[in-house]
Write a structure and sequence with these properties.
Layout lengths: L1 H26 L3 E7 L18 H9 L1 E3 L2 E2 L5 H10 L18 E2 L7 H7 L3 E7 L17 E5 L19 E4 L2 E5 L6 H15 L5 E5 L21 H23 L6 E7 L26 H4 L3 E4 L8 E3 L3 E2 L3 H9 L14 H4 L12 E5 L2 E7 L2 E4 L2 E6 L24 H9 L1 E6 L2 E4 L15 H18 L15 E2 L2
Parallel strand pairs: 1-9, 1-10, 2-12, 3-13, 5-6, 5-9
Antiparallel strand pairs: 2-11, 4-20, 6-7, 7-8, 10-11, 14-15, 15-16, 16-19, 17-18
Helix pairs in contact: 5-6
The structure holds calcium ion.
Length: 492
C-alpha cells in the first residue's frame, strides 16, 4: 500500500512538472528550425507531386502543417537567395548576386542585420549547419553575423576538385566555427553529418529558445547519398539524395518530439531555388512550371514550402497565397518580439497568412523578380509580367551521369568568368531572349501564353509598379541605380 502511495506521489509530481513545463512553453518564445535545401525542384517531394521519390517525413510535416504552393525566393541562385533569406531584403538591395566562389572578395556587409542577430537580441541560441554562401573571407563568417556555431561549407559543393567542368578549383574546405577542419570532405556523408550536429544542438539547447538553420548542401551537384540510401528511390541517385534529405527532416522532427519541444517549435522546409536542369537526371523537376534555376520563370523562383507549428499553423492546409522568403525575417521578428533592423527591408509580416486567418492576403502589392541587378519580372495578383531580357535554357539534351548538357563540346572555362555567358559556358546552357510578356499564373502556371496584347491595362499597371520599384532598387536593364541600394561587404 505504502509503495503504491509513494508511486502515486511520484507520478503526480511528474504530472505537475510536465504541466508546469507546458505552461512555461506558452510564454517562452518559439524555437525556429529552418531547413533550406539546395536546388530542390518544386515537384521533387511527394506532397508537391513527386511519384518516384518517397518523402514520407516531409509529407507528414505537410499533413500536420501547411503547404505553401506560391512560396517565392527572391532570386534563382544560391548566394542571392540566401542574402534575402537572412536580411529580409531583395538581394540587390544588399549588393549580393549570383553564387560566390573561392575567389570572391565580397560578402554580407557588417552593417546588415541578419535574422540570427535579431534572434540573439531575444536570447536565442543560434547555429548554422550546412552551406553559408554569403562570403568566405573571415569578416563574412556566420560567426560574425549572429550565429554562435557553424559547421559546413562556405560556398557550393561544386566549388572544388569535383566541379564537373572546371578542373582548376582548389580543395573544398569543411569549416568548423572559423577554422578549416578538413579539405575535400566525403560528400556522401554531408546529409548525415549535418543532421547529427543539428540533433545534438537541439539536445544541448532544449531549455532555451533556439534558431537552428540547416541549409543542407544537397541536392546541389555533384550529388551524393550515403550507402544506406543509394539505389532506394525510383529516380536514380537524385531521388536517393532527396530521400536522404527527407530522412533528415524526419530525424530532426523526431528529436523535437523526443525532447518535448514540438509544441513550441516552428519548422520551415523549403529550397533556395529551382532545379539545375542542365544536369538532367542529376537535377530535379519543377513541373508544371517553366524552366528552373538561374531563371525568373516560376521553375526558378517558386519552391516547395512546408511550415509546421502545432496549434499555430493550421494542419493539413494548402495555401496558395504568395509568400516570399523576404517575408520570413519580419514575420519571425514579430513572432518572437524582436525589433526590425533600422535600415529599410523589403519583406513584410505575413503571419496572418501563415496562421490561416480567414481571407488573409499578401501585404505586397507586387513581388519583384531580379536576376542580379536586372528587374526581369513582377507579379501582382495572378498576373506576372516579364520585361524583355536574356535568360538561360538547357543547350540540347540534358546532361547525364553528373555532367551538364553539351558536355562533350564544352571548353573548360575558369570559374571567375561572370555574367550570363560565363554561367552558360560552365554549365551547358545557352542564352535566349524573352520579349515583354504577360502571363496569368492561375490559367497558365507554365508561363506559355503571352496575353499582353489582350490586357493592356494590366501591363500598364504592372509597368507602373515596376517603375516605382526601380526608384528604390534600380534595374540594370533600364540602366537605373536605385536610391535604396546599400554597399556590399568587400575586402581588398
Ligand atoms: Ca541553389
Amino acid at each position: 500500500m505504502l509503495v503504491r502511495r509513494v508511486l502515486l506521489a511520484i507520478l503526480l509530481t511528474g504530472l505537475a512538472a510536465t504541466s508546469h513545463c507546458r505552461a512555461a512553453d506558452q510564454t517562452t518564445p518559439p524555437n525556429i528550425v529552418l531547413i533550406f535545401v539546395d536546388d530542390l525542384g518544386y515537384s521533387d517531394v511527394g506532397c508537391f507531386g513527386a511519384k518516384d521519390i518517397r518523402t514520407p517525413n516531409i509529407d507528414r510535416l505537410a499533413a500536420e502543417g501547411t503547404r505553401f504552393t506560391s512560396f517565392y525566393v527572391s532570386q534563382p541562385v544560391c548566394t542571392a537567395s540566401r542574402a534575402s533569406l537572412m536580411t529580409g531584403c531583395y538581394a540587390n538591395r544588399v549588393g549580393l548576386s549570383g553564387a560566390l566562389n573561392h575567389t570572391s572578395k565580397v560578402g554580407i556587409h557588417a552593417d546588415e542585420v541578419l535574422l540570427p542577430e535579431l534572434l540573439r537580441q531575444r536570447g536565442y541560441a543560434t547555429a548554422i549547419f550546412g552551406k553559408w554562401h554569403l562570403g568566405h573571407r573571415p569578416e563574412f563568417s556566420p560567426l560574425k553575423h549572429g550565429f554562435q556555431e557553424f559547421l559546413g561549407i562556405p560556398y557550393s559543393n561544386d566549388n572544388g576538385p569535383l566541379h564537373p567542368v572546371v578542373k582548376t578549383i582548389p580543395s573544398l574546405p569543411w569549416i568548423d566555427g572559423e577554422k578549416t577542419a578538413e579539405l575535400d570532405p566525403d560528400q556522401s556523408q554531408f546529409t548525415q553529418r549535418l543532421t547529427e550536429h543539428a540533433i545534438r544542438f537541439l539536445e544541448r539547447h532544449r531549455d532555451q529558445p533556439f534558431f537552428l538553420y540547416v541549409p543542407h548542401i544537397m541536392p546541389h551537384v555533384p550529388i551524393f547519398a550515403s550507402q544506406k540510401f543509394k539505389g532506394r528511390s525510383g529516380r536514380g541517385l537524385y531521388g536517393d539524395v532527396v530521400e536522404e534529405l527527407d530522412w533528415s527532416v524526419g530525424a530532426i522532427i523526431g528529436a523535437l518530439k523526443r525532447l518535448n519541444l514540438e509544441d513550441n517549435t516552428l519548422v520551415i522546409f523549403t529550397s533556395d531555388n529551382g532545379p539545375f536542369l542542365s544536369y538532367g537526371e542529376h537535377a530535379g523537376t519543377a513541373s508544371p512550371f517553366r524552366e528552373g534555376k538561374l531563371t525568373t520563370f516560376e521553375g526558378g523562383v517558386r519552391t516547395p514550402c512546408v511550415m509546421w507549428f502545432p496549434e499555430k499553423i493550421p494542419a493539413g492546409r494548402t495555401c496558395d497565397e504568395p509568400v516570399a522568403s523576404i517575408d520570413l525575417l519580419p514575420t519571425l521578428a514579430k513572432l518572437v518580439g524582436a525589433p526590425l533592423p533600422k535600415q529599410p527591408i523589403d519583406g513584410l509580416d505575413v503571419w496572418p497568412i501563415l496562421s490561416g486567418q480567414p481571407n488573409a492576403r499578401t501585404p505586397h502589392e507586387s513581388l519583384l523578380f531580379f536576376s542580379g541587378d536586372e528587374l526581369q519580372a513582377i507579379r501582382s495578383g495572378d498576373w506576372k509580367l516579364h520585361f524583355a531580357h536574356d535568360y538561360l535554357t538547357v543547350a540540347g539534351p540534358p546532361g547525364r551521369a553528373g555532367k551538364p548538357a553539351n558536355f562533350e563540346k564544352m571548353q573548360p572555362k575558369s570559374i571567375e568568368e561572370s555574367g550570363i555567358r560565363g554561367i552558360a559556358s560552365r554549365h551547358g546552357y545557352e542564352v535566349r531572349r524573352i520579349e515583354q510578356s504577360l502571363f496569368n499564373l492561375k490559367d497558365d502556371p507554365g508561363e506559355a501564353h503571352n496575353v499582353a496584347k489582350q490586357n493592356p491595362d494590366v501591363v500598364r499597371r504592372l509597368e507602373a509598379l515596376a517603375e516605382k520599384a526601380r526608384e528604390e532598387l534600380g534595374d540594370s536593364i533600364a540602366n537605373r541605380r536605385g536610391r535604396g541600394i546599400r554597399p556590399v561587404g568587400r575586402v581588398d
